[in-house]
Each structure stands twice: as structure tokens, then as C-alpha cells.
Design goal:
Helix content is about 45%, strand content about 15%. α4 packs parallel to α5 and α8 packs across α10. It is an alpha/beta fold. The protein contains 13 helices and ten strands. β7, α8 and β8 form a beta-alpha-beta unit. The protein is globular. The protein has a six-stranded mixed beta sheet with strand order 1-2-10-7-8-9, sandwiched between helices. It folds into two domains: about 220 residues, 3-Layer(aba) Sandwich (Rossmann fold), CATH 3.40.50.1100; about 90 residues, Rossmann fold (3-Layer(aba) Sandwich).
């Protein structure tokens, strides 16, 4: 677990650079799922996802940041790091796969970071290691304790906002977000049940838990911001010990949930966030009818082009 003291310290450090995101209720989802349902609207965070929480904390903890830092990302961390580096006046480069949607690339550059494109996310990790060896400061997107502590600030915020929470569903990519949020919530409220979710083709954590050790894979899911090629060791240990389950949902169900949130809740989520609703639908019946379920909508960086393509593809 990430120490609660580290998460509490991170909350103080990152406060000037992030916003407290709201929680909204959903009568329709509460009726559908048979329990009180609340939505944690982290898609309204700076840059459109939770990533600045961890990126700011990681950057502030790095003593040699003035010399320049490098990150690796399929989308949201690129913007989070670029935003953090811009606010702190630090040169930043982000290595990204060529398949990254243009809206992610444009936003990352607009925040002030240099973007280097490589063929795949696996190639991006190789290039990242090369740049670190050349002297760039390493800013890992998920497998870093300061990153995870920063992400955990969302968990503390959520407990303040929803003191009667009984269940929380979070998305898993490499696992840094899940690890931080789970550590924060379980350290203060061990009775809260934590659930993880991945999409098919971006399910490296579920595969790792089945295998009993961290695994690698080539991501194929449309949920690119979940598309880590491996599971972090710390995140793997936390997932195995503190999650009730890691649900794996098809892309089609993530898109169906995304459309529902768009049409009924007026929220533009990306598949990596909407999959928490898809997981809740699969887990229906396992929640306390008198409890409170929170779905963390961790990001909303969806382009109009991708929205149309996904709905065309999955109907």
C-alpha cells in the first residue's frame, strides 16, 4: 500500500495546481443498479483527467526537474505532465505512439511539452528508457510511488465528499491510479469495497492476477488510455490484496455506457472512464441495496471523431 502519510502530504502539495472535482447523483442508475449511485466527475479535472494529481506530485518530488523531464503516454498522462511542467517551468518531452488521437497530441503540445512519436506503445517505453539514460528526468505514467501518492488524493477527496460510501469502482491501466485511490480509501475506511475494471485487450492486471505475477501484453482495446503493456509490481500487489474483483468488459459495453452517460447524464467520458459503469452493470446484485456506490469517471478526453467512430462501430 502507498503510505497514507505520503498521500496526505501530496494533497497539500498539489492543491494549488488542481481542482476539487464534484460528485453527482444519478436516480436512473440508482434504480437500474439497485443501490444509491454517485458519479465522481474527475473528467472535470485540469486537462480532462486525474493525471495532473500524480504528475504534479511526481514532478515536485524530483530534485533535478529543472534540467528537463521525459514521460511516456498513450494520451492522458502526456497532458497531465505537460500541464504540470508548464506550471512549474520545467522543460518536458513526452514519447507517444503514432496511433495517439490527434486531440491528445494537440493538447500536449499546447500545454508546452515536446512530443516525440514512435510506432507503438511498446516502442515508446524503449525510447523513454533511452532518453532517461541520456539524462532526462524520468516521469513514469503509473509505476512510481510519488505518482501513486498524488493519484491517491482523489481517494481522500472522495471520502470527504461521500462519507457513507460503501463501494467504489475505478479503472485500471498500468495500475497507478487504482493503487493510489485504493491505498487512500482503504487506509481510512477498510470497510469500503474497491472494485477494478479493465476492457478486453487492455486487461493486463486481470491477466496478471490470474497468472499470479505481473504480466505483459500488446494492448488492442479502443480504450487507449488503459492500454499499458505491463502491470506495475506495486499496483499488482495492491490489486491482488485489496480489490474485490477486477472486472473485464468488452469495448462494446464500454461504448454503450459512454453513450448512456452522454445522452442521460450529459457527460462526455472516454471509454476508459465509462467502463466503470459497464463494470457496475456486470456486478449488479453484488452491491448493498442500502449502500452507496461511487463510479469514478476518471477522464473525458474524447474527440468528436472518435465518438462518431466508436458509435458507428458498435452501434
Amino acid at each position: 500500500m502507498i503510505p497514507l502519510s505520503d498521500i496526505e502530504a501530496a494533497r497539500l502539495r498539489v492543491a494549488p495546481y488542481i481542482v476539487e472535482t464534484p460528485v453527482a447523483s444519478s436516480r436512473t442508475l440508482s434504480e437500474q443498479l439497485g443501490t444509491k449511485v454517485l458519479l465522481k466527475l474527475e473528467l472535470f479535472q485540469k486537462t480532462g483527467s486525474f493525471k495532473p494529481r500524480g504528475a504534479v506530485n511526481q514532478l515536485l518530488a524530483y530534485d533535478e526537474r529543472a534540467d528537463g523531464v521525459v514521460g511516456i503516454s498513450g494520451g492522458n498522462f502526456a497532458q497531465g505532465l505537460a500541464y504540470a511542467a508548464g506550471r512549474l517551468g520545467v522543460p518536458a518531452r513526452v514519447v507517444m505512439p503514432e496511433s495517439t488521437p490527434r486531440n491528445y497530441l494537440d493538447a500536449t503540445r499546447d500545454y508546452g511539452a515536446e512530443v516525440e512519436l514512435v510506432p507503438t506503445i511498446a516502442d515508446a517505453f524503449v525510447r523513454y528508457d533511452e532518453l532517461v539514460a541520456e539524462g532526462w528526468g524520468p516521469m513514469h505514467p503509473f509505476d512510481d510511488p510519488d505518482m501513486m501518492a498524488g493519484n491517491g488524493t482523489l481517494g481522500l477527496e472522495l471520502l470527504d465528499q461521500v462519507p457513507d460510501v460503501t463501494d467504489v469502482i475505478v479503472s485500471i491501466g498500468g495500475g497507478g491510479f487504482m493503487a493510489g485511490v485504493t491505498s487512500a480509501i482503504k487506509s481510512r475506511r477498510s470497510d469500503v469495497r474497491m472494485w477494478g475494471v479493465e476492457t478486453e485487450g487492455a486487461d493486463v492486471m486481470a491477466r496478471s492476477i490470474r497468472a499470479g505475477s505481473p504480466q505483459t501484453m500488446t494492448p488492442t482495446s479502443i480504450a487507449k488510455t488503459l492500454g499499458s503493456p505491463y502491470a506495475g509490481e506495486t499496483a499488482f500487489e495492491i490489486a491482488g490484496s485489496h480489490l474485490e474483483e477486477v472486472a473485464v468488459v468488452p469495448d462494446a459495453e464500454a461504448v454503450d455506457s459512454m453513450v448512456f452517460l452522454f445522452e442521460r447524464a450529459k457527460l462526455v467520458t472516454e471509454p476508459a472512464a465509462a467502463c466503470t459503469l459497464a463494470a457496475a452493470r456486470r456486478l449488479k446484485g453484488r452491491f448493498d441495496p442500502t449502500g452507496t456506490l461511487v463510479l469514478v469517471l476518471c477522464g473525458g478526453n474524447l474527440s468528436v471523431a472518435d465518438l462518431c467512430a466508436f458509435t458507428d462501430r458498435f452501434g
